[in-house]
Design a protein that fits this description.
heterotetramer; A: alpha+beta; Mth169, Chain: A; 3-stranded antiparallel beta sheet; 31% helix; elongated; C: 7-stranded mixed beta sheet; 25 helices; 33% helix; globular; binds adenosine-5'-diphosphate; binds magnesium ion
Chain lengths: 81, 268, 774, 81
């Protein structure tokens, strides 16, 4: 069994309304030195099998489901469990 | 083709939830709409080829988890997208409303810049700038465009339609933005743009999601694939329009639906 | 005291027969049964008589069935006395999961409202979402198509200082956003329009938020399905989600008071899964249409235990259930956990052998699980197996024969009449703008727009009405449920904790009055109510006293008007560290609109039209937002004259039927001034009004009194004579005219009390909680 | 300036419909060996000032805005930038 961690975030320059909203809320809560917030999604996927082909498979998952390359970038990490 | 011979597939999977009103709209216009579950297509129980038009209704397909429309699109990628490509190449109509628009973008059938089917999405419908789901009536202006079936509405006409979505901000990647936008303008692919009541291209809330160039609805280069965020099926009858109790007799959605049907009657 | 029955399985025998009295309560605690001493004694006697000891499965089943939540042991008495007895000919069926009331010759509407307070206090997002999910199932399981949602939600003030929060309590801001997102995400995903509700702020809800969710559906009368099975040899089919450890002891949890800092059982919390529910609705309705389902009930509090027990009891049969067949989320669950788990998104269907295959095909198309887990039997017993082992064998009557208490109560007579006098001001511009910004008056667009209120395309009158981009509050929303008929359903929800805490009796009458007003405002005839009674700890006689008085008020009003309470729910123990919520009854009101083409909205329509106020305005400032804002007190709350209410609403409906009324808004929180403002905002039209005639009281009271049974209406000059004639037996007051100059002026005689522009009013009214308009 | 990374995920036993829906989709895309999917949020917050009190501040942000301890667990990492 391996665990694949995929972090999907917005590309530089793509506006992230959730991040902006959270920044605003934090500032209103008197966290005045918060300058910037971004929000990403972290998918943790448990996959049966060995880790050799997993990275490629994860890329395919991003391609087919998890990512829209117009707005997203992603990072994959593989971990044996 | 006679109206009552026109078969329209209203696609659905778990979470599509505007199929009933869309079905009713087509029914009232005298065609033969039919609910078609994606499982029925992938299990071979029904065939796309039997229909003249595919209508992908609004809703929260697959819960809109991951991204709006992504799960529905991925389900189609796995199974029927080749059939869909052929369907489009045959010149038949494919319409996506709201969630359906998101699906067509995710599938790469829209905007279809320099291609009929892009393997990767060319655009995105990103979260609304307000960071909220918004349900409200807005105005769109019909632009000069190549959708034959929007001819019932004059160019430059302003119509009111309702929107209800959390992810409707049409954008391109920064590096392609200028090029693609110009391409779409040159090819008359921009069908509807958000405006204020006077026809000005205004910001929020008139542009309810922060779309690039106030884009509300687009078609492919051939004009037979059409996607829009507003819901024409919720503006079909006079009594759905918030102006009815102010004695306005407007049925903007009906014009859009009727255009599709008239077009099929003429063409097939 | 406890011993394993069988090596292989996690099933225990509890030796209750030989237990000392002090051990009885300990075992109730240890197993989280939430049964009290007398109840445990009764159990011991029962099993002594039976000549054997119970299993843990049996005790858990009884604990669920006897909980406050399931058997209404504290409130049954009050409900029977006041609420459930009101008869009316339109009622088809009550006492099941949701009420069935006639809509037209062939159709019925089906509805209910239910509280989900305790779960929402612990986990606002999931608690509110599952509240919506649960109420949808209640309507669906009657065989009805859900067509509308209502949510009434109560919070502490959003500007409450963080430092004053009790330890472990989340800020109202967090809870508010969580609750609204939960309702939004669930409702929008299942695709049922959310069309009405209440958003209310008061610091007495800081530790105990209230979430009351309502749902209405439509069904062919011939498709109505009972929540029971009375035939032997029918399959019990469990459909929808899998069963997990989530939600275990939810009902006993809802029957306890909170202590802050207490570690909450995480298992009582769930997020809900709308993407199982959405296809479940399609599949169930298809099966209903094909007449494949004989009996149906949703799984809510108490899980399988409640659902199988209640379905069988109602039909006079028993059941055999095989717990190992239940599809599980976690493999190692014990039989008792399976039996009482409250996992969401499940329904129980009773299906004949003959129809079983066809039913299974429908569910398979939607990728939904459907499993036969048992069968009905002739003996009125519930026999549970876990593989080959019998883990429960009990009489259905005993399980469901929970105790009924007639708890002690004291009625708090409102302290002697006491009224502070606010010093008058030269004009009321400042007060007026402050009122417009008051969270209980200000625009709720921030909430309403996050809910899809138009999905399904049947929302004829939306919760926000008026010119596009300038919308104002409507009084009730109108749905058009049938494609080939202009008959409509109007929905509203009302509550007023400020009034009910000063005077529970008159406060309760007032919320009935408001429900009627709201429905009539849109040209709907009030048809039935659901009531939710949210209170503190019933073991406190004062709380019980409030409950009695509220019930009596609700009862007196509805009896006179002949509008029945057909469904509802009671939520008690809304108390933390001894701090109780104010008595908070909420109503969901349903009205019938004879012809939706004659629906009336609240936004002003035309320049020069005439503005009338219907009925008198009194000095009844107790519980008003004006007094609250100024921090003054009065115990004189608005009264209701039922005869006048009855007469006025019927006359108004007649006038609307003749199309004499162009717009109508009831007068409630904030008084006439606020009603006029809302009408101006939505129509983007000004006015010039003089309130000198409307009552013999101070100017500020004329503006801001919340006296009952009043409406503001717009008539054209052309129709004025007919209108006045029609209202000859009531007091009506011509107060002024609509103006298209954007100015908003209210005089009292020669005094100019308010001098504003419509744009400025809109700006203040939409400030909360974020700036909505441009 | 420091960057605080906060990962907020569901506690064991809280069933997350999003994870379930994604697992189903991946399986239907023929990633048959995907056994489990969880989705977490990753907040990256840029804060002006030094890193000494930042961890405590981040905890407070979780408490006030980002986390409900009944269902969520979280992890905080601080990074100088
Ligand atoms: N939580 C909510 N969900 C849906 N609709 C809401 C909610 N809160 C308020 N509304 C709607 O906002 C409008 C104004 O609410 P309210 O001020 O309570 O009405 P009223 O003027 O009758 O007192 C109504 O249409 C009501 O249904
Ligand atoms: Mg009202």
């Amino acid at each position: 069994m391996v665990k694949v961690k995929i972090i999907v975030s917005y590309k530089e320059g793509v506006e992230d309304p959730e991040g902006l909203a959270i920044k605003k809320s934090l500032n209103l809560l008197n966290f005045n030195n918060v300058k910037n917030v971004t929000v990403s999604k972290l998918y943790e996927i448990n996959i049966e099998g060995d880790s050799s082909s997993v990275k490629k498979e994860a890329e395919e998952m991003c391609d087919k489901l998890l990512v829209n390359p117009v707005i997203h970038k992603y990072k994959i990490e593989v971990e044996k469990i | 083709m006679k109206k009552d011979e026109i078969r329209i597939a209203i696609l659905r999977i778990e979470g599509t939830n505007c199929e009933e009103e869309s079905y009713n709209a087509f029914k009232i216009l005298g065609t033969k709409p039919e609910y078609v579950h994606v499982n029925e297509l992938s299990r071979g129980l029904k065939k796309l080829n039997d229909y003249q038009m595919i209508f992908i209704p609004g809703g929260f397909s697959g819960g809109d988890y991951v991204r709006a429309g992504a799960i529905f699109a991925s389900r189609m990628k796995g199974t029927i997208s080749m059939d869909l490509k052929k369907f489009i190449d045959d010149g038949k109509l494919v319409i996506g409303v709201c969630n359906g628009f998101q699906v067509l973008i995710e599938l790469g059938f829209l905007p279809g810049i320099n291609t009929d089917w892009s393997e990767k999405p060319q655009a995105a419908l990103a979260p609304n700038i307000s960071n909220r789901f918004e349900c409200r009536w807005i105005y769109v202006k019909k632009e000069k465009n190549s959708c034959e079936f929007l001819k019932n509405i004059d160019d430059g006409k302003i119509i009111a339609l309702p929107i209800a979505h959390a992810e409707g901000r049409f954008i391109f990647s920064k590096e392609n933005e200028k090029k693609y936008l110009e391409h779409m303008i040159d090819n008359n692919q921009i069908a509807l743009r958000y405006v204020d009541p006077n026809g000005n291209y205004e910001e929020y809330p008139w542009n309810p999601n922060g779309s690039l160039y106030n884009i509300a609805g687009i078609c492919n280069e051939n004009g037979n694939v059409f996607g829009l965020m507003p819901h024409p099926e919720r503006a079909f009858s006079r009594y759905q329009h918030p102006g009815f109790y102010r004695n306005l007799y407007e049925e903007p959605g009906k014009k859009i639906f009727k255009g599709m049907v008239d077009y099929i009657v003429k063409k097939f | 005291m406890i011993e394993k029955i069988d090596e292989r399985y996690n099933v225990y025998r509890i030796k209750i027969r030989s237990m000392e009295e002090q051990d009885l309560l300990r075992i109730s605690d240890q197993l989280s049964l939430a049964l009290n001493f007398e109840e445990m004694l009764r159990l011991r006697a029962y099993f002594r008589n039976l000549g054997r000891d119970p299993t843990d499965v049996e005790l858990q089943a009884i604990g669920q069935a006897w909980s406050e939540h399931c058997c209404y042991k504290s409130s049954k008495f009050v409900l029977r006395k006041y609420i459930t007895g009101i008869r009316a000919k339109q009622v088809i069926l009550t006492g099941e999961d949701a009420a069935v009331v006639e809509f037209d010759k062939d159709h019925a509407y089906v509805f209910k409202m239910e509280s989900h307070n305790h779960p929402s206090a612990v986990e606002p997002y999931g608690g509110a979402a599952t509240g919506v999910g649960g109420i949808i199932r209640d309507v669906l399981c009657m065989g009805a198509k859900p067509i509308g949602l209502v949510d009434s939600i109560f919070f502490g003030n959003l500007n409450y200082p963080y430092d004053s929060l009790p330890k472990g309590v989340k800020h109202p801001n967090y809870i508010f956003n969580g609750v609204v997102s939960g309702i939004r995400d669930y409702g929008n995903r299942v695709g049922i329009p959310n069309v009405a509700g209440i958003t209310y702020f008061d610091d007495r809800f800081i530790t105990n938020v209230l979430v009351n969710a309502g749902c209405i559906g439509i069904a062919k009368k011939s498709n109505i399905i009972r929540s029971m099975v009375d035939r032997v040899g029918y399959n019990l089919v469990l459909v929808g989600g899998k069963t997990g450890r989530d939600g275990i002891h939810g009902v006993t949890f809802a029957s306890k008071v909170f202590k802050t800092g207490e570690n909450v059982e995480k298992t009582a919390v769930q997020l809900g899964n709308p993407i199982i529910k959405e296809p479940l609705i399609h599949a169930v309705l298809e099966a209903v249409d094909k007449k494949l389902i004989y009996g149906m009930k949703d799984l809510g509090g108490g899980g399988l235990s409640s659902v199988v027990g209640e379905m069988c009891l109602a039909g006079g049969v028993g059941a055999e259930v095989h717990l190992e067949k239940v599809p599980l989320k976690e493999k190692d669950m014990s039989p008792w956990e399976i039996w009482i788990s409250e996992s969401q998104e499940r329904m129980m269907l009773a299906v004949s052998d003959e129809n079983l295959n066809q039913l299974m095909e429908i569910f398979s198309l939607w990728d939904l699980e459907a499993t036969v887990i048992g069968r009905t039997i002739k003996d009125e017993k519930l026999i549970l197996y876990f593989h080959d082992l019998v883990v429960m064998d009990l009489d259905t009557h005993f399980i469901t024969s929970g105790p009924v208490y007639c708890r002690p109560y004291v009625i708090k007579y409102p302290a002697q009449i006491k009224e502070d006098m606010i010093p008058p001001e030269p004009n009321y511009n400042r007060v007026f703008l402050n009122l417009l910004e008051n969270p209980n008056i200000a625009s709720k667009a921030y909430v309403i727009r996050q809910y899809d209120h138009e999905v399904k395309g049947n929302t004829v009158l939306k919760p926000l009405v008026g010119i596009i981009g300038k919308e104002t509050h409507g009084d009730a929303s109108v749905l058009k449920p049938l494609i080939d008929s202009y008959r409509g359903i109007a929905l509203t929800s009302t509550s007023n904790p400020k009034l009910t805490s000063i005077d529970p009796y008159w406060g309760a009458m007032s919320i009935v009055d408001e429900a009627v007003r709201n429905l009539v405002s849109v040209n709907a005839s009030p048809n039935s109510f659901a009531d939710n009674l949210n209170f503190g700890n019933p073991e406190n006689p004062k709380v019980m006293g409030d409950l009695y008085e509220v019930a009596r008020g609700l009862s007196d009003a509805a009896k006179y008007l002949k509008i029945p309470y057909v469904s509802g729910n009671v939520s008690l123990y809304n108390e933390t560290n001894g701090e109780s919520i104010p008595p908070t009854p909420t109503l969901m009101g349903v009205g019938i609109v004879k012809d939706i083409r004659k629906t009336v909205s609240s936004d002003f329509k035309d320049h020069n039209d005439i503005i009338y106020v219907i009925n008198e305005t009194y000095q009844e400032m107790g519980g008003s937002i004006y007094y609250d804002l100024m921090n003054y007190r009065s115990t004189i709350v608005p009264k209701v004259d039922l005869e006048k209410l009855n007469k006025s609403y019927k006359t108004l409906l007649k006038a609307m039927d003749k199309r004499l009324i162009k717009s109508c808004h009831d007068i409630s929180e904030g008084g006439i001034a606020i009603s006029l403002a809302e009408m101006s905002i939505g129509g983007d039209l000004g006015l010039e009004v003089n309130v000198s005639e409307i009552g013999n009281i101070r100017s500020d009271f004329k503006l801001f009194s919340e006296s009952n049974t009043r409406w503001v209406i717009e008539v054209s000059e052309k129709n004025e004579r007919d209108f006045v004639k029609m209202f000859s037996n009531l007091n009506i007051y011509k107060i002024g005219k609509i103006k298209d100059n954007g100015e908003f002026k209210i005089y009292d005689g020669k005094r100019l009390l308010i001098n504003q522009t419509v744009n400025n009013l809109r700006r203040h009214w939409t400030m909360f909680p974020v700036e909505e308009s441009k």
